[in-house]
Amino acid sequence: MITRRNDIFDVEKKIAYFSSHQPDGLMVQLMGQNMMRKDGPDHMTERKTIFPAVSPKTVKNVWKTEFEEFTDSILANVKPEGHGDLVDIARQLCGDALRAITGLRNMTWQEIDRTSQGMIDGCANYAGDKQIEARCHDCTAFIDQNIDEMANVLRDCPDASLLSVQLEAGMTMDQIKANIKLAISGGQNEPRDVIAGIVWALLTHPEQLALVLSGEATWMQAFEEYTRWQSPIGMSPRQMAQDYDLHGATLKTGERVFLMFGSGNRDETNFARPEFFDLTQDASASIAFGAGPHFCAGAGASRCLIAEVVLPRLFEALPNLRLNGLTEIGGWAFRGPTTTPVAWDTEAMSESM
Ligand code: HEM
Prior knowledge:
Blueprint: H1 5-11, E1 18-19, H2 26-31, H3 40-54, H4 56-78, E2 83-85, H5 86-102, H6 109-123, H7 130-156, H8 162-168, H9 173-187, H10 189-204, H11 206-213, H12 219-230, E3 236-240, E4 244-246, E5 249-251, E6 256-259, H13 261-264, H14 299-317, E7 322-323, E8 328-330, E9 336-339, E10 341-343, H15 347-352
Helix pairs in contact: 4-5, 4-14, 5-6, 5-10, 6-7, 6-9, 7-8, 8-9, 10-12, 10-14, 12-14
The protein binds protoporphyrin IX containing FE.
């Protein structure tokens, strides 16, 4: 395990030693050889191909409006309830965002959420549980079927999505399917965990929420500090392609190493108060989205969805938002709330007050 922030920041770029090419790894076995499991020119070619679908320009000019529309309608739907589980609300928000970004508008947000969880469980299934493996295969087959269906539509009527830009670039269906499954597996749980997690963190640190509501701090600062503090992706694996000496330890060719983002993001060498959720501290050294050629392709879309659209609207649309029971946080490789019960005032309540 590589645990120090500056070491991770350094070795992530040394792909000649720290390789993402892991043909025997669970992700490749179950989901195909996606761009995150490639190095060098092969990786960069696919990275360049998907860039138009997740570029800052496309996020700003195409996805942001769509994020705003479905967020307003989802919040308008839940508002009369007066209470709910923020993890469930976040599932729908992230599922709808991925339907747009991937191009799979023929899937429902529930199907995006179910297949994402099925693949995440499959990739963490080191015990080799046959049921988990079978469920993962069922999820990947379901996504493949929907990609085939949607590809026929998008060939005639292209859009800005991951599926469409890869089709237009002439990528093979195997490459396209592997990368779309990567986006669904990596693009549903993490933003979901961050939306529910940030609200929990702000409601359990009212002095931090007050900074945002008074304008002394921004929702983006809350986003950057929370993803540093909790590291939704706590670890990412690499395989040694050559021997490498790190602080006197030799990492041998063929060995697997874990880049511990969760540890690096609490490195006292880089952060003033690493153990504390504090919006006033400098979080710019955070490696929550990685630190090398595999830096998260969805970082821009996530920052826009969560900090520019969802958080300000959530606290605006759900007055007196408050915790309504115990929030449970789970996981280390993938870390976040499994439930965040909340309540808020409804029109009926404010009229009767
Ligand atoms: C807050 C939410 C998110 C977090 C914390 C996150 C975190 C990460 C991290 C740490 C990596 C790098 C892994 C490594 O170096 O091995 C990564 C890669 C990736 N992420 Fe995200 N991610 C998030 C949201 C998303 C979304 C919404 C999408 C899709 C639209 C996405 C798509 C990807 C892709 C395609 C890669 C691989 C990039 C490459 O190999 O070049 N992520 N993510």
